[in-house]
Design a protein that fits this description.
The chain is mainly alpha-helical and 131 residues long. The protein has helices at 2-42, 45-56, 61-100, 106-130. The protein has one domain. The N and C termini lie far apart (62 Å).
């Protein structure tokens, strides 16, 4: 009888704990996603210019007109640098792979190729999210 009377409060406690964990995980995921979106926006051409305009708070439309081309050009340069960095990383990785393959066993080379394919898929997904 005593066990039965304890089941209801225990079930309620466990249910509350579970709901709290789910809410905590969901809120954490949302915060992280939001911050990543802001960071990705900062690295885009238009986002870079807009974020800095918000920080600077131009005092007049004249000042805004002078700032905008400068900020947009810098945003464009950042985009180019980001694209070139990806290309450079890919070149370095191919050079690395060319050096490693003669040393690796068939099984190791297969694992490396599998890992590379998974990474490529993740990077493609990330690139699509940025656009």
């Amino acid at each position: 009888m005593a066990q039965r009377s304890m089941m209801k409060p225990l079930t309620l406690l466990l249910l509350t704990l579970f709901v709290g964990m789910v809410l905590g995980a969901a809120i954490t995921g949302w915060v992280v996603q939001s911050r990543l979106a802001k960071f990705n926006n900062f690295l885009s051409e238009a986002g870079f210019a807009q974020i800095l305009m918000d920080v600077i708070e131009p005092e007049s439309e004249g000042q805004r007109a002078k700032l905008l081309p400068i900020l947009e050009e810098t945003g464009h340069l950042i985009q180019e640098t980001k694209a070139n960095a990806r290309t450079d990383i890919l070149v370095h990785y191919r050079e690395l792979e060319a050096e490693l393959l003669p040393i690796l066993s068939q099984e190791q080379a297969s694992r490396l190729q599998s890992w590379r394919e998974k990474l490529r898929v993740r990077l493609d997904e990330h690139s699509k999210m940025e656009k």
